[in-house]
Amino acid sequence: MEQTLIQNSLKEKFSDEILSIDEASDILTVTVNKNCIRDIILFLKDELGFGFLTDLCGVHYPDKELQLGVVYHLHDLTHNQRIRIKTFTTLEQPEIASVHDIFSSANWMERETYDFYGVVFTGHPKLIRILNVEYLDYFPMRKEYPLEDSTRTDKDDRFFGR
Amino acid sequence: MEPLEREHILIRPEDFDKNFSTLNLGPTHPATHGIFQNILTMHGETIIDAEQTIGYIHRAFEKIAERRPFYQITTLTDRLNYCSSPINNIGWHLTVEKLLGVKTSKRIDYMRIVIMELARITDHLICNSVIGVDSGALTGFIYLFQEREKVYEIYEEICGARLTTNLGRIGGFERDFTPDVIRKIKEFLENLPKVLRQFENLLLRNRIFMDRTIDVGGISAERALNYGFTGPNLRAAGVDYDVRVMNPYSSYDDFDFTIPIGTNGDTYDRFCVRQEEMWQSIKLVKNALENLPEGNFHEDVPEFYLPPKEEVYSKMESLIWHFKIVMGEMEVPVGEVYHSVEGGNGELGFYLVSDGGRTPFRLHFRRPGFIYYQAYPEMIKGSVLSDAILTMSSMNVIAGELDA
């Protein structure tokens, strides 16, 4: 299906929920309200043929109001068309509806996103940490956690960018 | 304090009269070739349910990548699927080149295809020979590992390393193929078909092997797609999705090759698909090597391609570029890219978010093994324990990739 057709049918169905559409990126990128994420993924799968969830991951933007992002990459294998769906939420209310029953592959990817970013996927059957140890009490991929021990004095990162 | 025994390890009271038992397979079990824990609920020898625990060798690559300049991330990708590290390296370089808008010449593309297909061969050699080992045939394993060693010698000749290769650079290669490399590849291509045929004679129509693998650990095409299967595992289930054909990168569209597919998605089909892919890879390497155009082995991208050390010490311009690259004073475009390559065991994707800094703002690896390993319980339910071991080795789950 053509990119414009996908855009039009999305706009028609979810006109109030779509926050922005970016065609300039390598993949058609649609940013949507988090409340409709399940509906939009279901619509893409059932109506527009995006039957393959390639990837699901989190991003943390500490400078934005809606800090936590979840990025879905979907693939239409019949027409070889990819789409990227983004949704954002606040740190205080990190709940986003789970899509594990739409795509079984989302199960672990959502657990991984929870593990590293603390995004709570409501409706997930078993939202526990997957790669980190169970007793970890923070979400390590958030930007406020430095990679290295901040008490070290032998390294000065001011000279090396970030 | 968390209770020491997790809920799923305890046998529930209602299971007592069913005579279920719990078996803790792993984390370090000699039959699973890596650190995988599976908590199996068994009825006699039949598996009723399974649950995997992963993360034993998690090394936080995505976090580390947020602090490293692009050219230093190559070494992290080595350690994802370490049976085919060059594919990961080149996949990463292609992702960065996509972000930077660097176009590579045909020579570089063909050189990359040679390396990537050699890596695919080693990956499949390991996986298929291990399927043999797990079904009780050690001989084929020894035969194939001799060939794998020869590919590692080729890597050594090209980049100096064997397993974790750090091969290639953004914009091409660190050095050209030497005559020795070409000779070694040709020798390898000469010898491999003989060994592969020998290996196929041992296993492909072997009654015991067929009994052990046909209808073991099968999955339907529909379920495989729903579980995010890619690579040989998906193709064994009958879906002809291959990134090399669907979204050709590195001039794969110049070559003529066949994508083998299976029908049942069982262990035998996965074995056969990998076997046929190796034959196709041999053809690809041969073609790429024969048609290798003349030219430079790297693109002219001084902003990202580290100049040779001799020039850094003798030429002012090289010294400046070297300094700028190392100190991270290069202009990096702001944006997001997703690029995927056909890895040894599936679609290896890189989702890169750049904010213009010298390091990625966010880098996510789409590791095929992590995604399709979820289907393992569904695939082994109702089968016996020895089949579960065989199913795992035929899925080509690599611990390094699973845990990133």
Written account of the structure:
The complex is a heterodimer of chains A (162) and B (404). Chain A is an alpha/beta fold and 162 residues long. Chain A has one domain: NADH:ubiquinone oxidoreductase Nqo5 subunit (Beta Polymerase, domain 2, 2-Layer Sandwich), CATH 3.30.460.80. Chain A is built from three helices and seven strands; from the N terminus they run αββαββββαβ. Chain A has helices at 3-13, 37-46, 106-117; strands at 18-22, 28-32, 52-60, 68-76, 81-89, 95-97, 120-122. A five-stranded mixed beta sheet of chain A has the order 1-2-5-4-3, with helices on one face. Chain A has a two-stranded parallel ribbon with strand order 6-7. In chain A, β1 (18-22) and β2 form a beta hairpin. Chain A is globular, with a radius of gyration of 18 Å. The termini of chain A are far apart. Chain B has 404 residues and is mostly helical. Chain B has two domains: 13-53, no CATH class; 61-403, Cytochrome-c3 Hydrogenase, chain B (Orthogonal Bundle). Helix content of chain B is 49%, strand content 11%. Chain B contains 17 helices and six strands. Chain B has helices spanning 61-65, 70-78, 85-100, 106-134, 138-159, 179-203, 207-213, 221-226, 231-236, 243-246, 267-290, 309-314, 316-327, 368-372, 376-380, 385-395, 399-403; strands spanning 20-25, 37-43, 46-53, 334-342, 347-355, 362-366. Chain B has a three-stranded antiparallel beta sheet with strand order 1-2-3. Chain B has a three-stranded antiparallel beta sheet with strand order 4-5-6. In chain B, a hairpin with a 2-residue loop joins β2 and β3. In chain B, α4 packs antiparallel against α5 and α6 runs antiparallel to α11. Residues 1-5 of chain B have low confidence and may be disordered. The A-B interface holds A 25-27, 29, 51-55, 57, 59-60, 71, 73, 77, 80, 82, 84, 103-105, 107-109, 112, 116, 129-135, 140-141, 147-148, 159-162 and B 2, 54-55, 58, 60, 62-64, 66-67, 69, 98, 223, 225-228, 239, 241, 246-247, 327-328, 335-340, 347, 349, 351, 353, 357-359, 361-362, 364, 366, 370-375, 403-404.
